[in-house]
Design a protein that fits this description.
84 residues; single chain; elongated; three-stranded antiparallel β-sheet; 3 helices
């Protein structure tokens, strides 16, 4: 018994992520987001489908990493300057 894979349209992904369809298509074109072209004719207008697992991989890759700890700056040890 095989598990069925859920596929989303670019419109569905755009709605889920609150971005435009154009943004989703640019992610697909750049290779950031994996998608399959399920259009009937080759060379025609593509009809993209994104698997739930590919969307999860994409989102994990785009999640912010924890901030890099920065060292505190120390003041110079010289005495403060006095102005007369």
């Amino acid at each position: 018994m095989s598990a069925s894979v859920a596929y989303l349209r670019s419109k569905d992904v755009a709605e889920r992520l609150d971005v435009t369809v154009h943004t989703v298509l640019s992610w697909i074109k750049s290779g950031e987001l994996s998608a399959s072209d399920v259009s009937a004719r080759r060379g025609g207008r593509p009809s993209w489908r994104i698997s739930e697992s590919d969307l999860e991989v994409f989102l994990v890759g785009r999640s912010p990493s924890p901030p890099v700890p920065q060292q505190r700056r120390r003041r110079s040890s010289s005495s403060p300057k006095q102005y007369v």
